[in-house]
Design goal:
Blueprint lengths: L5 E6 L6 E3 L4 E11 L4 E9 L5 E7 L1 E2 L4 E9 L1 E12 L13 E15 L1 H4 L14 E4 L5 E3 L26 H12 L3 E5 L19 H13 L5 E5 L8 H21 L7 E4 L11 H17 L3 E4 L14 H18 L11 E7 L4 E7 L5 E2 L8 E5 L2 E3 L1 E5 L5 E6 L7 E5 L10 E2 L4 E2 L3 E7 L1
Parallel strand pairs: 2-9, 9-12, 9-13, 10-12, 13-14, 14-15, 16-26
Antiparallel strand pairs: 1-3, 3-7, 4-5, 4-8, 6-7, 8-9, 10-11, 16-17, 17-22, 18-24, 19-20, 19-23, 21-22, 23-26, 24-25
Helix pairs in contact: 2-6, 4-5
Amino acid sequence: MSEEIGVIVEEGLSDWQVVQHEGGMGVVRLKGRWISSVKGEVEVRVAMEDTGFSVLDWVRADTWEDGFWEAVLKVPAGGLYRLETRLRTAENLAGEWSPRGDMRHFWGVGDVWVIAGQSNSAGYGRGPYEDPAELGIHLFRNSEEWALASHPMNDSTATRHAVNREAANPGHSPYLQFARLLKRELGYPIGLVQTALGGSPLVRWNPQEQGESDLFDNMVQCVDQASGRVRGILWYQGESDAGTEEQAASYERRFGDAVGAWRKALGDAELPILTVQLNRVYGRPEGDRIWTQVREAQRQAAERIAYTAVVPAFDLPLSDLIHNSPAGNMLLGERLARAALSLVYGVGADSRAPSVEVARRGDGRRVELHFAHVVSRIDCIDETANCFRVEDEGGEVPIAKVSYPMNNAVVLELERPLRGEAQVHGGWGADPDTVPMDMERFVPMLGFYGLEIQV
């Protein structure tokens, strides 16, 4: 460094960075030093990386005689860009041959999304996949350096924050596909900031709970170092809070507290949160009620917390007892992208999954369930499947048959009449039977718990 000359960039931008835009413009605040035996003026410009054509032509930075300089640039959403700097002196009036300056390559202005949650967010999918890296989709890695995004995203090589270091190497996640579809639709770069950790309970993300919220602290720190502002949070978590009924019953409230803390810390009261309802888990029948309760909390949170969406995962294949496979992750990434486009960007059709609205007692031993957000009709690809459970004052009420009347309703035919107050649950259990879907979109319903059956 002692032999360096010209303009040195010390703060404000790095190779591969994605700068969060607001209203179509990103603000880049640059600081550095200049080194020359002759007094000069620092100049900066922004050019397209692939062509060299100027996006922002040479502008003069604030330059001080003590060897420091600063500049604030407003750059339109897009890229990839190259930042160039130079020192214009009285001895070098020809700008193109002015003393050299530092450059920054392959950066852009677009949207930055935080990846948070536990193992299915950290990316535990195993097996081969075709999900290649793509210019314009970049990742703020655990090394606290921007890079081209690729799997595994929670790679701990040269990590600067061991708090979310995985015990084993992670694998494939949904978020490269998520970012790819957003970039394709929006036409500008997408940045990802990975902060997830396998096995992490909600308490570690929620400073409102009694306990160490170290993953919350790490997420805020990573956002501050990566970009300062983000477009939204991608959240997939809940498996570690499906251990007791107390955890499950309080999950919606605690998640709401966490969202409030995230929005306050990141300076955006309307920060979008995209969530995933728990998929199935094999070999845990003792958790049937608790897993169903957590799914209901996730469904209700998306209904009650503004600027929050939830996507279903019941149909995603697994690569072990609990983790989505690469094939499942690709579909999940697409669903999350469609949810983002609808909720955040107002682009495309309503992406919401079928969600039960009301349950009514029909004639005799019938219960009719009516669903919102059904584009075509709700049906099930397995005619023998029964993912529902009915309970009344006499206990469980056996279901003799599940039928689909070619609309937005599901009919449950019971083996006995209901006694007193009754409830119905859908997507019942840790590993439920095949659930109904909106057949034209092939989107499964959201699981639910404790819905009162009205008279």
